[in-house]
Design a protein that fits this description.
Strand content: 25-35%
Number of strands: 28
Number of domains: 2
Distance between the termini: 35 Å
Structural class: alpha+beta
Largest sheet: 7 strands, mixed
Shape: globular
CATH superfamily of the largest domain: Neutral Protease Domain 2
Helix content: 25-40%
Bound molecules: zinc ion
Radius of gyration: 22 Å
Length: 478
């Protein structure tokens, strides 16, 4: 995600600056659940009636007596967060007729968490088929999950399997700070029943024209997002083997062309630097409607505002598009637990965005990043929070500067210390080693040490954890 309020306003308030803004693959990590979803959209009621089958993989860490699912739309039922982001009309997701291997079971729902007891133990090496019907009522004015005129933004719109790893079940609660979503690589087969004239823009390779029935398939993605619309227009293009489509609404014509060019050039830039983008298609959908959000990343699809304010007027939101597309590498392909270690995807993504803006768009913000990161030393002294904490530890006002900005400045410092080429090699190695898996901060540090041939622990300790008495530069440490 790129934070609108935080990035732009914090920057202006603080500085009045000119910135406008290989190891063997783990068999458990690479075993994927399969989702089969049949969804019928009713545009007049703004509801989705769904039937979902989830097959859990044979390869798991534990025998399983239950599974958990996140029902994120339920946060829009009785909104308990900031009133500015309260939906005008509530939304929710109800499940019924839950079965495990054909046997009806009694589910338990508490706010966003659905527990499905199996009524038996499913040993490692055996799959289980969890089936349910669901009814999604879309909110109006919801964050990410939303409806706008003849468009439904289906984000986190189906019961999403909760990750169980060696730390246990990740039944993490929702929060309006950052992206509280943590999912594992899965295979999707999603069929849509749509009213006449509707098009689907999704995580899969989409059909080129509207249809009332369609089946979309996408393997090896963490999530499946879909935008159902009668209103969007498209500009198509290609970067390498990947189709890069930019979708825009009436009134965004002026920004659509430069943003499509930026999308093409950032996909090429990140692909060359970090490693090849593995999917056939990526969609850029303009018109992010979430409160305080400038853009959001999903597998194979991003959203972005069309334009952003500058000191002198407005500009196409190129840095937002670049940021969200960089997430295709850092979140999409290489996953991480965004609730536990949000810096890992947001820091690397913010660095990638700034690098693109510097090298391709000739907007060099390194001085600003450095000044901003100096400010984080003061924040740390005042509130004791560092840059590698859990999402839930950060007050909204400092989340962006601690989790996005300082780690991005850290990566620039690392470039100054060990050279750009080495830093790119670190990112390439990290991408290659952990693609389609979930990496941790420790995995990243390990790759950095290995590739640089240095002990970078004191460097990361200082930059991410504010550990005093350690050198902030690696060249004094080695
Ligand atoms: Zn982000």
């Amino acid at each position: 995600m790129k934070r609108f309020a935080c990035t732009v306003f914090l920057i202006m308030a603080l500085f009045s600056s000119t910135l406008q803004l290989e190891v063997l693959a783990d068999p458990v990590q690479t075993a994927r659940p399969k989702y089969e979803i049949q969804a019928k959209y009713d545009a007049s009621k703004q509801t989705v009636s769904g039937h979902m089958v989830v097959t859990i993989p044979e390869m798991r860490l534990f025998p399983q007596k239950e599974a958990f699912f996140q029902l994120y739309p339920n946060v829009f039922k009785d909104w308990k967060y900031e009133k500015e982001s309260k939906p005008e009309k509530p939304g929710y997701l109800n499940v019924k007729n839950v079965q495990v291997d054909g046997v009806t079971v009694k589910e338990n729902v508490k706010e966003t968490i659905l527990q499905v007891p199996f009524g038996k133990e499913v040993p490692i090496g055996k799959t289980a088929r969890i089936e349910m019907d669901y009814e999604l009522v879309l909110p109006k004015g919801g964050t990410r999950l939303n409806t706008y005129e003849n468009t439904a933004f289906l984000a986190q719109w189906y019961p999403m399997l909760v990750v169980q790893d060696k730390e246990g079940w990740h039944n993490d609660p929702y929060t309006t700070v950052g992206d509280p979503f943590y999912t594992q690589m899965s295979d999707f087969e999603v069929s849509f029943d749509l009213p006449a004239g509707y098009q689907v823009i999704s995580s899969a390779k989409d059909q080129a024209s509207p249809a009332e029935k369609m089946v979309l398939k996408q393997d090896n993605v963490r999530d499946f997002v879909a935008v159902l619309t009668k209103d969007y227009q498209v500009i198509r293009g290609k970067s390498g083997k990947t189709d890069v489509n930019l979708w825009y609404l009436k009134g965004m014509e002026k920004e659509s062309k430069p943003l499509h060019e930026a999308a093409l050039s950032s996909m090429k830039f990140f692909g060359e630097r970090f490693g090849e983008y593995p999917y056939e298609e990526v969609d850029v959908v303009l018109g992010e409607t979430g409160f305080g959000i400038a853009g959001m990343e999903y597998p194979g699809l991003i959203t972005s505002i069309a334009k952003m304010p500058t000191m002198t007027g407005e500009t196409p939101a190129i840095s937002v598009v670049a940021h969200e597309l960089a997430h295709q590498w850092w979140y999409g392909v290489v996953g991480s637990n965004q609730a536990k270690e949000p810096w890992l995807d947001e820091g690397l993504t913010t660095f990638s965005e700034h690098l693109f803006m510097q090298k391709q768009m000739k907007e060099d913000d390194r001085d600003w990043l450095k000044k901003a990161s100096d400010k984080t030393d003061e924040i740390h002294k005042a509130v004791g929070i560092h840059s590698a904490q859990k999402l839930y530890d950060y007050p909204n006002e400092i989340y962006g500067i601690m989790v996005y900005i300082r780690p991005a400045a850290m990566m620039y410092q690392l470039m100054d210390d060990i050279g750009e080429e080495k830093v790119m090699e670190i990112l390439k190695t990290y991408y290659e080693r952990y693609q389609f898996q979930t990496a941790t901060s420790q995995d990243f540090f390990k790759v950095a040490n290995e590739v640089s041939g240095k002990d970078l622990k004191p460097f990361f300790d200082k930059w991410l954890y504010f550990k005093d008495g350690e050198p902030k530069k690696t060249n004094t440490a080695s």
